[in-house]
Write a structure and sequence with these properties.
single chain; 271 residues; alpha/beta; 8-stranded mixed β-sheet; 12 helices; 8 strands; globular
Length: 271
C-alpha cells in the first residue's frame, strides 16, 4: 500500500508514512507486530475520493526503532507521536481508523485531541482489561521475556503466533507475514516489540477516556477474535455515545480477513 512513501519527523522520531489516493484524508493506525501494509487489501476496496495515510508506528516497519530510553512505547507516547504527525502531514481535522494497538492510540487521540478527529473507526482495539496472552505474559517476565523475544522467537514461531492469535485462517499472504517478521527480527525491532508489549499491557487509562470521545464513531470487531473478545467491542460501542457496531465473521484482523465488507462499511460511514 502507498503510491508514495516518505519519512516525517514526529516527537523526535523518524516515521515512515505510506500515502496513496486523493480526496478526503483517512489516517490509518496499525497494531503491534504489523506495519502500514496491513491496510493494503482494505485500501484496494476503498475506491476513489479518499487519501489513505498509513504510518508505521515507532518501532515498527520502516520507521525508526529508538531504544526504550529515548521512546517510552506506551499508548500515551504513541498518541503524542501521532498528534505531532498531523503537523508533519499538514492535516487538520480528519477521519481516524485504528486497529489493535492502533485502536487504543486512536481512542486516546480522539479523547485527548478532539479537534483532530472528524470521525473515528475502531477495529479490535486494546481497550479493556482481559487475561493476557501467553506472549504478553512472557514479555512481562524478567530475563525470560527478553530471552524469548530477543533470541528465541524465530520465523516459525512468529508465523504460528500470527495465524493462531491474529487471523487463524491464513487470510494474510505469507509474504506479508514474512515482511512483518523481517522488520521485527532485528536487534532494534525485537527490543521495540518487547518494550511495546511491556508498556501497553495496562489499558485502564484508555478505558477511562472512552466516555470523553465526541467524534462520531464506528466500532468493528471479529466474532472469532482470539485476542480481544467481541463482547469488548459491544461494550465499547455502548460507552461511546451514538457509536455504531459491526460484527463480522473474522478473527482479530477483520480488515485483513474481510477487507471488502470493512472497506464498504468505512466508506458508507464516512460519506
Amino acid at each position: 500500500m502507498g503510491d508514495v512513501q516518505r519519512d516525517v519527523l514526529a516527537s523526535g522520531v523518524r516515521v515512515r508514512v505510506a500515502d496513496s489516493g486523493s480526496g478526503s484524508p483517512i489516517l490509518l493506525l496499525h497494531s503491534a507486530f504489523m506495519d502500514h501494509s496491513t491496510w493494503a487489501a482494505m485500501g484496494a476496496h476503498m475506491g476513489s475520493g479518499f487519501r489513505l495515510l498509513a504510518p508505521d508506528l515507532p518501532g515498527s516497519g520502516e520507521s525508526e526503532k529508538p531504544p526504550p530510553a529515548r521512546f517510552e512505547y506506551g499508548i500515551e507516547a504513541f498518541t503524542d507521536t501521532v498528534a505531532d504527525l498531523y503537523a508533519g502531514l499538514s492535516l487538520s481535522r480528519t477521519a481516524l481508523v485504528g486497529h489493535g494497538l492502533g485502536g487504543a492510540v486512536a481512542l486516546s487521540l480522539a479523547a485527548r485531541y478532539p479537534e483532530l478527529v472528524e470521525r473515528l473507526v475502531i477495529v479490535g482495539a486494546w481497550c479493556y482489561s482481559s487475561p493476557p496472552l501467553l506472549e504478553q505474559r512472557l514479555a512481562q517476565t524478567p530475563f525470560i521475556g527478553g530471552l524469548v523475544f530477543k533470541q528465541l522467537w524465530n520465523r516459525a514461531s512468529f508465523r504460528s503466533f500470527f495465524n493462531r492469535r491474529l487471523v487463524g485462517r491464513d487470510a494474510v499472504p505469507a509474504a506479508r507475514v514474512d515482511r512483518y517478521y523481517d522488520a521485527f527480527s532485528t536487534p532494534a525491532g525485537r527490543s521495540s516489540a518487547l518494550a511495546t508489549l511491556r508498556a501497553t499491557v495496562d489499558t485502564r487509562a484508555v478505558a477511562a477516556q472512552v466516555g470523553r470521545i465526541q467524534a462520531k464513531t464506528l466500532v468493528i470487531w471479529g466474532r472469532q477474535d482470539a485476542w480481544i473478545p467481541a463482547a469488548f467491542g459491544q461494550r465499547l460501542s455502548r460507552e461511546i455515545r451514538g457509536a455504531g457496531f459491526l460484527l463480522l465473521d473474522a478473527g482479530h484482523c477483520p480488515h485483513e480477513e474481510r477487507p471488502e465488507p470493512v472497506a464498504s462499511a468505512i466508506r458508507e460511514f464516512l460519506t
